[in-house]
Design goal:
Blueprint (H helix, E strand, L loop, with lengths): L2 H14 L8 E6 L2 E8 L2 H12 L6 E4 L2 E2 L9 H14 L9 E6 L2 E8 L2 H12 L6 E4 L2 E2 L5 H14 L8 E6 L2 E8 L2 H12 L6 E8 L9
Parallel strand pairs: 2-3, 2-4, 6-7, 6-8, 10-11
Antiparallel strand pairs: 1-2, 5-6, 9-10
């Protein structure tokens, strides 16, 4: 696909997305690498614009340089935003230990620091904050609290794979070094690969997952 065609496809997809105003978003493409520029009225729109561009076929990478320009009537004081962040994190059932999370807000830009037990909690915290109005950006610096017992991590992932009816667990090797997990072996589809990776990330204390799984399509038998 040519860069010109890819650029037009992205512009069309941005225009088609009902949750954003794409009038002030610029798109350039070079060798499949997309740069998004311009401005939007909320951080939620900025995040959505990036996701919209990512789902267009042919995109190899994205440089996101969109600026958030809040309307005057939607600007909120930093202390009020900080209070809202703390409240929404407290309400979020996925965030168990709020005392381990520090919140900083400067000119509407929210920084999350501290530790959580699971990778999904790190993502959940950012997702919750993203819903708030008045923010101009998020810097997610939350770290995963290490769990150093490699045998427990490996056992937990192995059992999770065995419980999943869509995974041939015996075809997957799990290597654990500290809090880092490597998956090797064969699966039969991209979906199985995603399920296996999700199982690894779901283990307590995992801070990194390396996916070395290969996809081996099942052979089709021909009639003699």
């Amino acid at each position: 696909m040519s860069d010109i065609r890819l650029r037009q496809d992205i512009l069309d997809e941005l225009e088609y997305e009902p949750s954003i105003d794409a009038a002030n978003i610029g798109v350039t493409v070079e060798d499949g690498v997309v740069t998004l520029t311009g401005h939007v009225h909320s951080f939620a729109e900025k995040h959505t614009a990036e996701r919209v561009a990512q789902r267009v076929k042919g995109v190899r990478a994205i440089a996101e340089e969109i600026e958030v320009r809040l309307p005057e009537n939607k600007k909120t004081a930093d202390d009020e935003i900080a209070s809202r962040v703390v409240k929404i994190l407290a309400w979020g059932a996925a965030i168990a230990e709020l005392k381990d999370i520090q919140v900083k807000v400067e000119n509407g830009y929210v920084t999350l620091a501290g530790t959580v037990d699971f990778y999904f909690q790190r993502n959940a915290a950012e997702s919750l904050v993203r819903r708030l109005t008045g923010i101009t950006g998020i810097d997610n610096r939350l770290r995963i609290r290490p769990m150093m017992d490699a045998l427990d991590i490996r056992h937990g992932i192995r059992e999770a794979l065995k419980r999943n009816a869509e995974i041939e667990a015996e075809n997957i090797d799990i290597e654990v070094s500290g809090s880092h997990v490597s998956l090797r072996g064969k699966v039969q589809s991209r979906y199985e690969r995603t399920v296996a990776e999700r199982a690894a990330w779901s283990a307590r204390g995992v801070t990194a997952v390396e996916d070395h799984l290969t996809i081996e399509e099942p052979q089709r038998h021909r009639n003699a």
